[in-house]
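Aim 2, interim progress. The first record below pairs a target sequence with its structure tokens.
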Amino acid sequence: MPGKVADFLRSAELDDAERAALDQGVTVQRGQGYTLRVSAVPAVHRGLLARCEPLDGAGGVPVVPAQRRARREYENRVSTLGAPA
């Protein structure tokens, strides 16, 4: 998960499984930013992705292009996890 997405989600209200996944993630430095490696079932990743919709401009919230790109990158990664059960 890109660091910009992780930073946004840390301030969001999450359920216990989502919060635990973020808290147990491993930070990996990447150039100017970082990536958070999160080990969780695909359903938790889909839940986290749904909670970061505002980063893509949903709801008329002003968005930073780097945050939009980070959310889309995370969406692409989550989509490779397979179809929901």
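The second target in this work package is listed in the same format:
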Amino acid sequence: MSHHTDPLAPSVHTAHEWLAAVAQAMDTEDRFLAHRALRAWLHTVRDRLGVNAAAHLSAQLPELLRGMFYEGWMPAHVPVPRDVPSFLAQFAHAAGVTPEEAVSLVGVVTDALADQFSPGQLDHVLAQLPVALRFVLLGTDLAAALTQPDRTQTEDFERRLTALTEAVTALVHGLEFPADAGPDDHGGFSAAQQAHRILLAQGLTGSEH
């Protein structure tokens, strides 16, 4: 049936394109396996987002995948605990793989979907999650080590990452001179001082002078 006679055909076609991208990233011709992995990724990530963030993510999905995304969703019970072991256990169960296989498969699906989402959308999703989960979703080499993370170390890493982000933001903001700023404008120096103070407060610079 052509697109001209089937009003659902465009939605089906787009969903197949996304599924094909996941299958290709997984290096498999088994569309059922790819479908399970895609569904597992959507549900496992969805359950760890707040209601507004989940709605924002779903808006990026093709119509048919949006239905899959909301299947079984209970907004009153989200977000669920966001530790790495429970994340991998849920994904592995839904995808039909072992927790060990889930570590690498999560990153593969993330890579495939990154090319399908609007630019910056994946970054927005990752920003809602703890650092340890970001590593797992990105499929980094640290993923296995983070399956049983030290909570203190993880929280310290998050704190330092936040401080670094704030410092860079302060520096960039200070360097965005207005159009009529003169060459003697000291905005850049003040921004550098502010960034230095932020980093110093978190022990991210080697000098206190």
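The chain is about 65% helix and 0% strand. This observation will shape the mutagenesis plan for the next reporting period.
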